[in-house]
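$ ./design --mode recover --in tokens.txt
reading tokens...
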């Protein structure tokens, strides 16, 4: 276990600085291998009236839109919420974050303890 942790500690900075492995599907659409572009995300579910912090990996990028998949724990429980999301960076006219890259969007997922899917709003920032 210690060897694995040491290897991850050595490789993580190299992966974070490397250029993502991506494949052009068309002029405006790019497929990105999972875990190449990772975002920290805050999900909000209006149905449940609470938020979930999580991580997501960008899978497809088209112009300024991103399709991602990720997971978020429900804090204080053993429940998790795997989800998919679609997000974009808002125009500076609407929301000026010239010094930050914040992506806003929508998400849908199914908590591990429920039979039905939930959905809501998301906000994320790139980690690498």
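writing sequence...
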């Amino acid at each position: 276990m210690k060897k694995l942790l040491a290897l991850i500690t050595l490789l993580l900075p190299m992966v974070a600085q490397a250029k993502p492995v991506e494949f052009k599907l068309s002029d405006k659409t790019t497929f990105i291998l999972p875990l190449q572009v990772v975002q920290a995300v805050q999900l909000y579910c209006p149905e449940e009236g609470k938020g979930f912090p999580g991580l997501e990996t960008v899978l497809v990028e088209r112009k300024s839109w991103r399709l991602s998949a990720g997971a978020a724990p429900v804090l204080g429980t053993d429940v998790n919420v795997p989800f998919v999301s679609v997000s974009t960076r808002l125009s500076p006219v609407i929301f000026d974050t010239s010094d930050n890259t914040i992506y806003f969007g929508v998400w849908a997922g199914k908590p591990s303890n429920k039979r039905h899917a939930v959905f809501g709003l998301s906000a994320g920032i790139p980690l690498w």
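exit 0
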